[in-house]
Amino acid sequence: MTFLIETIKLGLANLRLQMLRSILTALGIIFGVAAVITMVSIGEGSTAEALAQIERLGAKNIIVRSQRPPESQDVAGGQQRSRSLSYGLTREDLRVVEMNFPDAEAIVPLKEVGGQVLRGQKRQVSQTIGTTPQLMDAARLTLARGRYLNERDMEERALVCVIGAEVAKEMFFLEDPLGETLRVDETPLQVIGVLGGVGLSGGAGATRVGRDINLDIHVPITSARAVFGDTVVKRESGSFQMSEIQVSEIYLVAPTRERVIDDAANLRRLMDQRHPGMEDLGMIVPYELLETARKEALTGQWISGAIAAISLLVGGIGIMNIMLASVTERTREIGIRRALGATRRHIVAQFLVETGVLSSIGGLIGVVLGLSLSVGLNVLVPLLPQAPLVGKHFPADASLPTLVSAWSVVVAFLVAAATGLVFGIYPARKAAAQDPIVALRHD
After folding, report:
1. How many helices (H) and strands (E) are present in the chain, helices listed first?
2. Where are the alpha helices (DSSP H) in 75-126?
3. Where are the alpha helices (DSSP H) in 172-257?
4. pLDDT for residue 245
5. Which helix (H) or strand (E) holds 195?
6. Distance between CA atoms of residues 409 and 422, nearest Å
């Protein structure tokens, strides 16, 4: 025990004598560990956000939606022709789905209606959806205020609506929307509820769900059919689109997660029989997206690990080079220690202590730096759009989510410490192998 303590004291004393060189030697380990923790936290944060977005769609959901078939995109002279199109899901499709999936937890139809939403001088392109009260649970929606649609609204074909968070913000800025009226085309609708904000607005999330849910307006599907019919007219940027769609989407909620893949395959076959080629239909299976995202995340972790290994390898090589130079400089010191009775084991231990201390301290500093960068990026990146000079180069919703994982911190530090020891073995053995008489004669 006394030998170990004395060896550690001697190693620390030698490092203090060459403080600047010790710091520069440890920089490779410091930045390597910091890079590992930061990169892994960025990867984990992005992955967690992507998985959360998919989870919000409902892991047990299977979504079938009507989509404009490719051959309907007629273009002449750079202008899209205005014509009426009939495509997508029908009420008969909905009935067939209900017959073939009797044990489904829920089967929820959605029907797009209206061309514009108006309130006073404010207007926006309609994203009004006729649906049933079951959509609240199927789509995992939340309420910020008021209430959602209920069975009484369905029976009475009530002219009421529940609006998304962005609609409330744009149409009722600094006003209470509950009890107020919106017009969809020429039909007045009373606002009875406001949906909670959904993190799928914009970006990949909106692409997955097919639209920004924060801009939705939900009305009873019975009212949608009775008041608006099946024809939807869209006027936007000089274009004119008229479509006849009986059912825009169907949410099928499988009874268990284990049934999702099989039910999705059965639903695909069923829809392919009724719509050969499914050119006017699309299908989203969040569970499949979830599994794909997890596999991509695993691949990203392997890539991060490879980069981490390279970073720490460079740091280890730096330590070995400095220690080899130190062996040459301290040849006479090694000879004196051997002449006074130090064994080769003592010399090896002394040099391994020095490399171990260098890599361990470097690893600790790297951990602190990596954690600071991970937390700092999460806080600072959203502030960049407001920064002078550079703010214009960043989108308004700029973000870089990070998630520090305990395993990355522990592994990075342990690998850093091990790297120092492994790359210190060769210089230590070289120092111990020197002949004491030759070492004493060294100038």
Report:
1. 14, 17
2. 91-100
3. 203-209, 221-223
4. 83
5. strand 187-195
6. 20
CA 89, CA 202: separation in Å to the nearest integer?
A: 26
Q: How far is CA 301 from the centre of its chain?
A: 14
Residue 350 phi/psi, 5° resolution? -60, -45
Whether the per-residue pLDDT at 114 is higher than 80: the answer is yes
Q: Are 437 and 399 in contact (CB under 8 A)?
A: no
Torsional sign, CA 341, 345, 346, 351: positive
β-partners of residue 161 are 191
CA dist list (Å): 198 to 15, 48, 109: 55, 16, 20
What torsion do the CA atoms of 426, 427, 430, 434 make, to the nearest 10 degrees? -160
Quote the CA–CA distance of 15 and 21 in Å, as a whole number. 8
Cα dihedral sign, 288-290-295-300: positive
31: its two tokens: 């930045």
Q: Where are the beta strands (DSSP E) in 208-351?
A: 217-220, 231-236, 239-244, 249-253, 281-284
Q: Reduce the DSSP state of residue 260 to 3 states and report it.
A: helix
Q: Is 389 left (phi over 0), alpha (psi -120 to 50) or beta?
A: left
Edge-first strand order for the sheet with 84-86 is: 84-86, 239-244, 231-236
Which residues, 6+ apart, have CB-to-CB distance to 22 below 8 Å? Answer: 15, 16, 358
Three-state SS at 407: helix
Output the CA torsion sign for 115, 119, 120, 121. Answer: negative
Domain boundaries, the chain: 2-53+292-441, 61-253
Of 236, 165, 148, nearest to 202 (Cα)? 165
Let me know the angle formed at the C-alpha of 405 by 402 and 407, rounded to the nearest 5 degrees: 150
Look up residue 302 and give its amino acid: W
pLDDT at 356: 82
Closest CA to 354 of 84, 106, 26: 26
For residues 329 and 377, give the distance between their C-alpha atoms in angstroms, rounded to a whole number. 43
d(CA 91, CA 103): 20
Whole-prediction pTM: 0.61
Give φ, ψ of 3 to 5 degrees. -60, -45
Helix or strand (DSSP H, E) at 85: strand 84-86
CA 245 vs. chain centroid, Å, equals 34
pLDDT by residue (tens digit) across 305-353? 677 677 777 777 877 887 777 777 777 777 777 777 777 777 788 778 8
Q: H or E element: which one contains 162?
A: strand 160-163
Give the tokens for residue 209. Answer: 């769900």
- The stretches of 235-285 forming alpha helices (DSSP H) are 260-274
